[in-house]
Design a protein that fits this description.
Elements (H helix, E strand, L loop, with lengths): L2 H9 L10 H6 L7 E4 L3 E5 L7 E7 L16 H17 L6 E4 L15 E5 L9
Antiparallel strand pairs: 1-2, 2-3, 3-5, 4-5
Length: 132
């Protein structure tokens, strides 16, 4: 079992309790991050453990129960669309015009280790298929 799988399984029990996550602490500026985009709804910052030459995360500022994509409610469609729009916009800013990959890990089998919805955007290298 990889360290990511171990972390995902260890954090799964917290998915619905909503204690402050590391991402909440980044949003509140209690933890520093290399922020590359911010608006009133979301934040994009570089991943501390990049899996590609360019690897950043896009997160909603207001978690509002959005701990996993599979927990999304109908009234959250606008923020989900906004996160995707920001992901492609920042990808352009990061010069990923030839392509990039967006990944959303969901739950323990999806290797989700932080229960605050987040989009991984990776690029600047050839991606392979299947991804994992």
């Amino acid at each position: 079992m990889s360290s990511e799988e171990t972390a995902a399984k260890a954090q799964a029990h917290l998915a619905d309790t909503e204690p402050p996550t590391i991402f909440d602490k980044i949003i509140s500026k209690d933890i520093k991050a290399d922020v590359i985009y911010e608006d009133d709804q979301c934040l994009a910052f570089r991943d501390v453990s990049p899996q590609a030459p360019v690897h950043f995360l896009v997160i909603p500022k207001n978690r509002d129960g959005l701990t996993r994509l599979s927990k999304a409610r109908e009234d959250q469609k606008a923020i989900l669309g906004h996160l995707l729009y920001v992901a492609q916009s920042v990808a352009k800013q990061e010069k990923l015009g030839e392509g990039f990959r967006i990944v959303i890990n969901d739950g323990p089998l999806g290797c989700q280790s932080v229960y605050h919805l987040h989009l991984h955007v990776m690029g600047a290298r050839q991606m392979s298929w299947p991804p994992g």
